[in-house]
UniProtKB/TrEMBL annotation, chain A:
<dbReference type="Pfam" id="PF00115">
    <property type="entry name" value="COX1"/>
</dbReference>
<feature type="transmembrane region" description="Helical">
    <location>
        <begin position="251"/>
        <end position="274"/>
    </location>
</feature>
<feature type="transmembrane region" description="Helical">
    <location>
        <begin position="39"/>
        <end position="59"/>
    </location>
</feature>
<dbReference type="GO" id="GO:0020037">
    <property type="term" value="F:heme binding"/>
</dbReference>
<comment type="similarity">
    <text>Belongs to the heme-copper respiratory oxidase family.</text>
</comment>
<feature type="transmembrane region" description="Helical">
    <location>
        <begin position="396"/>
        <end position="417"/>
    </location>
</feature>
<feature type="transmembrane region" description="Helical">
    <location>
        <begin position="79"/>
        <end position="104"/>
    </location>
</feature>
UniProtKB/TrEMBL annotation, chain B:
<keyword id="KW-0472">Membrane</keyword>
<keyword id="KW-1003">Cell membrane</keyword>
<keyword id="KW-0812">Transmembrane</keyword>
<feature type="transmembrane region" description="Helical">
    <location>
        <begin position="71"/>
        <end position="93"/>
    </location>
</feature>
<dbReference type="InterPro" id="IPR005171">
    <property type="entry name" value="Cyt_c_oxidase_su4_prok"/>
</dbReference>
<dbReference type="GO" id="GO:0005886">
    <property type="term" value="C:plasma membrane"/>
</dbReference>
<dbReference type="Pfam" id="PF03626">
    <property type="entry name" value="COX4_pro"/>
</dbReference>
TrEMBL record, chain C:
<feature type="transmembrane region" description="Helical">
    <location>
        <begin position="181"/>
        <end position="200"/>
    </location>
</feature>
<feature type="transmembrane region" description="Helical">
    <location>
        <begin position="137"/>
        <end position="160"/>
    </location>
</feature>
<feature type="domain" description="Heme-copper oxidase subunit III family profile">
    <location>
        <begin position="1"/>
        <end position="201"/>
    </location>
</feature>
<dbReference type="InterPro" id="IPR035973">
    <property type="entry name" value="Cyt_c_oxidase_su3-like_sf"/>
</dbReference>
<feature type="transmembrane region" description="Helical">
    <location>
        <begin position="15"/>
        <end position="39"/>
    </location>
</feature>
<keyword id="KW-0472">Membrane</keyword>
<keyword id="KW-1133">Transmembrane helix</keyword>
Amino acid sequence: MGKIIRMGEYFRRGFLEPSGDQPSLFDWIFSTDHKRIGLLYLYSISTFFAVGVTLGLLIRLELIAPGSTIVGPDTYNALFTLHGVVMIFLFIIPGIPAAFGNILLPLQIGARDVAFPRLNLFSWWLYIIGASMALSSLLGGGGPPDTGWTFYLPFAGETATNVSLAVFAVFILGFSSILTGLNFITTIHRMRAPGMTWTRLPLFIWSLYATAWVQVLATPILGITLLLILAERILGLGLFDAARGGDPLMYQHLFWIYSHPAVYIMVLPAMGVVSEIIPVFARRPIFGYKAIVASSIGIAAAGSLVWGHHMFVSGMSDTAILVFSLLTFIVAIPSAVKVFNWVATLYGGSIRLDAPMLFALSFVLLFSIGGLSGLVLGAAATDVHVHDTHFVVAHFHYVMFGGTGFAFFGALHYWFPKIFGCMYNNRRATWGWGIMIIGFNLLYFSMMLAGLRGMPRRYYDYLLQFSQLNRLATYGSWILAVGLMLMAANLLIALRRGQCVGANPWEAATLEWTVASPPPTENFAQLPQVSHGPYDFKKAGKP
Amino acid sequence: MPDDTRHTGAMRQLIATWGLLLCLTAATVGISRIDLGAGNIWAALGIATGKAALVIFFFMHLKEEGRVIKISLLVALATLATFIGLTFFDVLYR
Amino acid sequence: MNTSAQHHDAEGARLGMWLFLLSELLLFGGLFVLFAVYLQRYPDQFIAGGKQLSLAFGAGNTALLLTSSLTVALALEALRRNRYRLCQWLLGSTIGAALWFLVNKGLEWHAKFEHDLYPGSVTLRQAPPGHDTFFGLYYLTTGLHGLHVIIGGVILAWVLCLVRQGRITGTSPTILENSALYWHLVDVIWIFIFPLYYLLL
């Protein structure tokens, strides 16, 4: 009897509180609680995001005027390489799935943890080891890598910079990503609460599911590609050396076979977040649930067929250009299905413009701009004109930062009261959002225009005619940074002094809102019996 | 929990599979010594696929698994085939 | 640690293992993509390269791996019938086969090195394009496969210890099940490596 009472007390505590008499740091970094691991990811990912932002601001500062402004060409090469590696592999790819996915996946399907809790902890450790190695490639040895985040051979095989270390770091990060993916797939298949049928899964879970498949099936190709780089650097096999019968284009094929699907690893979970936020703040069930599910699977599948559009001017065959261009346009269909369904959900809803909703709506806008500019790049003829210009850079920042980045912030504002049990100041959050939107568009729209006029990417110097747009873009980067800092400060203040809110401040209908905030260890005292869909707001607050 | 009756004869089945695998190995070596032109590589791949299927279905017990694992394997193989196939749109027509 | 969240789900554990194996399949898949492309480009050089490989070592190692696949499958069967001695003996033979495979591989590579056929060797650098590519892929593929043999062997040795200690039993066979699956995958990959590299004509 005494044991039962003790267990009850253990259960009532939130996962944020220390759970033993060990020092509390060890309580965290060796915890197998999915929420703690998710928070570890959230903190580490946010830290690396700050590093990436700093590198990005330095790139923009260098480009404020033609000529060498603050750094020379070699340092500039290192800056954009590390900015790419940090942002792609340390922030965007793990961002939403590893941080929010870990915290919310078991909560949303009514489970007590993921299928393999210790493997989950191991994934985080791999992530931290890989991240530390990637960052340490900045220091010592031959200097920071200067290949760009794509590590194209043959250059990556020859440069004396710390490419091997960075490549090995990314290999470890990829391993971490695969393990998270297989953990999530198994969890979704095996651990749904009674009554949580496939059509009652929240759309965020569906997006994680589609993402996890891409993680499991595409990431190994990155793994072997990175091993090939290492083999070239260490053994000099010459597999991609044209003089010895190799084909440099095959490196690009292998690299993009992963790295294009990786774009969908980055954006699908973001779409899932938006699909959660919009119905809650429009007080309407999502329009076309099954179409959105199908489009998630469709994007994951079709997204694996289009890597060749990164290689239109690389010397690939014309037939391949035609095929890949056509396939690229097919991805637009499931993406558009999502956008239309979100808009249709808004139609006739009673819309509440709190911070999460503002971020979700700006996702729809910025993602659409990014997606449509992607069609310009997917069409081979126009791609030849804008290839390797700032147009491309602006395009993928609209998709990745405007899309996934803003959805990440949206997720942060939406689930903040659930994770920490307290609320931030909505006015300040709105101001932060507004400043970021202005800065973001000033920054990247200027770059898009400069690119259309011929400003090449990855150059530390440029012709006088691009001065004005570059200056505007740099001003935009400062405004964006101010907005980011305001947002961060607002959330940090909320952590210390935020007001307590109940279990369900947004009156949402998914399962995570039926437990206390912060959720107790083990999530559910008794596994819930699910009796309604995720957007059935009349039954909000009940399982 | 597997019950004993289900596993009666299981060992014999595994050994038979192994015998078949060794025969197929001998066959693939034999066929490779006959000149079939481009047919050689396809024969070799065909036999290899057959051997892999034996290992996967009997040694790895895929035949006793549910739909999820079977479909997953098909998806993975289709994905790999697609990667190779689409690459050849470039390689064959360059 | 014995919380209900970690209660045992054998089917889930197998699903997780299969997904991991699928990712391994795709890892080697990248090398098969390269092989297919370069075979298409340099059919003559690849055939010439294949003829320089030792059929005896290739076929012998194939038979070894197939047999070790059988012994590990039988070990699982023995465990399920609680015949622990037999299970340990079969696991021991599997590990023995793994070691034998590696010794063969070492001898084979050594012979190649003697003939000046290794990455960056003078003979290969002076050979016509395509020759170099064949041996580059050969070393990379068999090397990566050999690494998997080593990992598989170590895992099976650990499993053997667990069976000895009675921590893997007929009622809790999951660790042996999943390790056996891994070992079979190493076999499946070799089933494709063998004809592609050793039997080209």
